[in-house]
Each structure stands twice: as C-alpha cells, then as structure tokens.
Amino acid sequence: MVRVLAVADEVVDSLTYGVGIEGRPDLILGAGDLPFDYLEILSSLCDAPCVYVPGNHDRELRGYRRGRTGWTRAGLPTEDPGPCGGINADGRTVTVAGLRISGLGGSRCYNGGTNQYTDIQQRLRSIRLRCGNILSKTALANRGGTDILLTHSPARGVGDGDDTPHQGFDCYHPLVRALRPTLLVHGHVHPYGSRPRDLPIGETTTSMNVVGFCQFDIDPATRKVDIVRRRHGA
Fold first, then answer.
1. How many CB atoms lie within 10 A of CB 137?
2. For a Cys-Cys bond, which of 11, 65, 114, 202 suits 176, CB 3.0-4.6 Å?
3. What is the pLDDT of residue 137?
4. How far apart (Å, rounded) are the C-alpha atoms in residues 89 and 154?
5. Residue 155, by phi and psi: left (phi above 0), alpha (psi -120 to 50) or beta?
6. Residue 73 has what pLDDT?
7. Is the model's pLDDT at 142 over the cut of 60?
8. 119-135 and 172-179 helices cross at what angle (nearest 10)?
9. Banded pLDDT at 1 (limits 50, 70, 90)
10. HSE of 175 in the Cβ direction (CA atoms, 13 Å)?
11. Are strands 212-219 and 2-8 parallel, antiparallel or unpaired?
C-alpha cells in the first residue's frame, strides 16, 4: 500500500506542524491553487516526493525546461518555477512512489487568466496526454493505464459546479475510459463546510474532491483504496 496525502485549494495550517497527518505519507499530491511553499513544507516535513498540477490561481508554468545545467525559459537560465523539488505532472505521466500518475491542470476558461482552457484546448491536451502515456516505456507493463489521474478541475457532471468557472471538462470522461485510473483526484470545487461524496466515473474509477486534504492508502496491484483521514474546506 502507498500512503498518499492529497491537498488542494485551501491551506490547512495544522498540517505544516504534522497535526492531522497519520503515519508517514509516501507521496504528496497537489491538485492546484496552493502556495508552492506550502507544498514544499509538506514534502519536507513528510520526507516524501511531491507531484502536482497547477490550478487557475497558480502562476504560469508553461515554457520552462529543465536540462542538465538547470532550469531555462526562452533559452535563458532561471529558477525552478514550481515548488522546489516538486514534479509537475501537467500534461504527462510520471511514476513516483510506485504509482503511475497522469496529470492535467487548469480550469475552464472564464476570464482569460492563467491555466484556463476552452473545451477544445483541454480536449487536445487530454489527447496528447493519452498518446504520451501509451508511448511511454513504463506504459507497456500497465497496458497504457495509470493509477491516479490528477487534475485541478473535476469531470463535467461528476462533482462539478453549475457556474462557468467551476464546470468540469467533458473530455475527462474519454480520458478516464482510456487510462482506467483507480482514482481521479481533483480540487477547484469548494464544499464550504459540506462533505462532497466520492463519485463513480467510468467503470472502475472514483472521483475524489480533495479540497482541504485527504489522506488515503492505495494498492496499485489490487486497486484497493482506504481513506485514512480527510478534512474539507470551511
């Protein structure tokens, strides 16, 4: 079993002191709209790698490249644009802590801000993610599948909102069918004191809203998931 601490959208100050964290997480997942130093603190505190995707309130991360000599943008040296040591999974599949994680950040376009996409743009991004996942070396052993689909926004009609900024993406449904993740982990939709239900999407996938935080154990071999602890935003 891999123990995961998933966070999104709202800072839970007690977590930065280790209060509320059960055991030692093997992995930190950031589903967007969080200060990067918060993710750095959690990763350092738990001594666990951090995989994240950007939300619509995060800074622009496109155009950065990491080479042998460090980070560059437009060919010029620069600093790591994200949380120090974090792994940006936006638009690609990574294998960390024994889990295959495919990521798509951002929200529906509503005011032209950063990390916002139209339906067509996000559909194209999802197709590129599927193609890259299928062609990756580690996909051969997993038949192109993945363990966790990490997004900022939910799928359309599965725990999303009615207002334009919080509507989910239709393209996530075929993406789930193609990747067959055990979990779709997202943020973006604030529950405001309520407890959103984990919802089925596709035949074998559960959509999980982790605004605030959720700690869970996942077995990639059996697809079993046990919720350890969760706290949704106020």
1. 7
2. 202
3. 53
4. 16
5. beta
6. 66
7. no
8. 10
9. very high
10. 33
11. antiparallel
Enter the tokens of residue 102. Answer: 């495919």
pTM score over 0.85? yes
How far apart (Å, rounded) are the C-alpha atoms in residues 138 and 94? 9
Residue with tokens 């055991």: 23
| Rounded Cα distance, 159 and 196, in Å | 8
Measure the CA–CA gap between 67 and 75, rounded to whole angstroms. 11
* d(C-alpha 60, C-alpha 181), whole Å: 27
What gap in Å lies between CA 111 and CA 97, rounded to an integer? 37
Q: How far apart are the C-alpha atoms of 188 and 64, rounded to whole Å?
A: 24
All domains of the chain, ordered by start, with CATH?
A: 2-232 (3.60.21.10)
Q: Is 193 exposed, middle or buried (0-12, 13-18, 19+ CB in 10 A)?
A: exposed
Lowest mean pLDDT among 30-34, 133-137, 182-186, 189-193: 133-137
H, E, C per residue of the chain: CEEEEEEECCCCHHHHHCCCCCCCCCEEEECCCCCHHHHHHHHHHHCCCEEECCCCCCCCCCCEEEECCEEEECCEEECCCCCCCCEECECCEEEECCEEEEEECCEECCCCCCCEECHHHHHHHHHHHHHHHHHCCCHHHHCCCCCEEEECCCECCCCCCCCHHHCCECCHHHHHHHHCCCEEEECCCCCCCCCCCCEEECCCEEEEECCEEEEEEEECCCCEEEEEEEECCC
Tokens of 176: 């789930």
